[in-house]
Amino acid sequence: MSEIEIPEDHPRYQSLLTRHRIEAGVEKGITSKQGLIAEGRGEAFDYLLGERTTESADAAERAAAAQLLLADHPVLSVNGNVAALVAEEIVDLAETVDANIEINLFNRTEERMEAIAAHLREHGAEDVKGLTADGRIPNLSHERAKVDADGIGAADVVLVPLEDGDRAEALGEMGKTEIVIDLNPLSRSAQVAAIPIVDNIMRAVPNMTAHARDLQGADHETLAEIVDGFNPEAALRAAEAAIREGELA
Ligand code: ATP
User: Fold this and answer.
1) H/E run at residue 206
2) CB 53 near ligand 1, within 6 Å
3) Which residue, judged by its Cα, is nearest atom 22 of ligand 1?
4) Closest Cα to atom 9, ligand 1: which residue?
């Protein structure tokens, strides 16, 4: 039995576990009610994808791992859904690629920031950024623009899972290389990403960590070749095709 008292071989196990974690996140004050809606949207796309990591998503996850290893200052951005779903897995990825973790909320409240920071620390995070908020993303309204100057403000590569389109666009305009995880290949966040990953974050983050471990000893040229060989438009087309033409079980 697992954390939801359902056997792991139950056909709906992953989906039920996801819902359970989001619900627990809302109860714990880390996920907003809007986050419940975002989860519902994501689930619909995941269902159409066959709840699997497609070959093209796996290639995107490998390119993302290479890009994070190449970065001078990578930052993993965490919101309420990300914290609820993959806190431990994000900490693991941050350690593997030597990245900062920064809390970055669309609906920012001090209570939720603190609750998420505590939740991440419970899952092993040592340094959690986002609480200082002494930097700004240009061209966004005040609350939505807040970042840490020495976190996302100074980052060259940012992982922004389940991000709002406006902010993803504004971060791109700041010259950040963006890796986006979003199950909707048509969302603006996915469209503006250098590396869009169309996969469930529950599968995507551990798979990125596995790729990063595999690539850890690789030299600069090898990593750069993997990144340069990745084509974001082709990845989005493949994801959309898989959703439109998918063979449902
Ligand atoms: P955009 O402005 O980029 O078009 P949006 O504001 O319409 O996005 P939201 O409703 O905020 O999007 O939801 C965030 C996105 O996160 C949705 O596109 C949804 O498919 C995606 N999403 C939700 N849950 C997951 C998950 N578990 N894994 C990956 N993506 C997810």
Assistant:
1) helix 201-215
2) no
3) 42
4) 38
Ligand 1 pocket test target in 17, 39, 81, 182 with most atoms within 8 Å of CB:
182
Query: Confidence band (pLDDT; 50, 70, 90) for 2?
Result: low
| Each residue's pLDDT tens digit, 57-89 | 999 999 999 999 999 999 999 999 999 999 999
Which residue type sits at 31? T
Q: Residues 123-181: pLDDT tens digits?
A: 999 999 999 999 999 988 888 899 999 999 999 999 999 988 999 999 999 999 999 99
Q: Pull the structure tokens for residue 232.
A: 């974001």
pLDDT at position 1: 45
- Quickly list DSSP for 13-76: HHHHHHHHHHHHHHHTTSS-HHHHHHHHHHHHHHHHHTSS--HHHHHHHHHHHHHHHH-SSEEE
Domain 55-245 has CATH 3.40.50.12640: yes
112 with 32: CB under 8 angstroms?
yes
Please give the structure tokens belonging to residue 158.
């940012």
* DSSP class of 10: S
Question: What's phi and psi for 151, nearest 5 deg?
Answer: -110, -110
CA of 185 to the centre of ligand 1 (A): 10
pLDDT, position 21: 94
Average pLDDT of the chain to the nearest whole number: 94
Minimum-distance ligand 1 atom for the alpha carbon of 187: 4
Whole-number Å distance between alpha carbons of 194 and 190: 9
